[in-house]
Predict the 3D structure of the following.
Amino acid sequence: KAGVTQTPRYLIKTRGQQVTLSCSPISGHRSVSWYQQTPGQGLQFLFEYFSETQRNKGNFPGRFSGRQFSNSRSEMNVSTLELGDSALYLCASSPDPYTANTGELFFGEGSRLTVL
Amino acid sequence: GQQLNQSPQSMFIQEGEDVSMNCTSSSIFNTWLWYKQDPGEGPVLLIALYKAGELTSNGRLTAQFGITRKDSFLNISASIPSDVGIYFCAGQRGRNRDDKIIFGKGTRLHILP
């Protein structure tokens, strides 16, 4: 069974640009969550999608947005990049949250974004 | 907002030593989770705890769900080199659709040769 796939793995952008990151969940998983990981703050919750709907949202500015497609694949977008947006962005999938809400998240390897 | 306080931030130990780390919160959580992140990888679930007072083992790892529901502990016995990595606690206040999983800042484990 293929794991969670995130693309691209690495990218470099400059301030003011925008970026789109992609996540393909494990087959059959319908929930996708996004986290930002930085050395000082650990894993910060961005948002969660289920059945193409945003189910939950963390405390990030509106520059951070996401969406989920009918095949459960998800994308997140960051507009007007700032230096502080440099981080590892992790995507995690889980089975149907209404029937299997065990808290187990299956993470991808992440997309490492560097903003210059 | 909800916060999990994880300590210590980092540990330097000798191979073979036992390790203890903990996670506390000012709020009650109904699920506690422990994840490990190897370098260059995403976190992987080690142990999940669902009941106050629960003690669960996974090989050399043992975790406990604190009786107050505001803390959890992870112990690693007889550490080996592959235990190196970042250990995250995570909690979920409830089990309904609105309860996101939040993470502590991690404990980075180093093993000295």
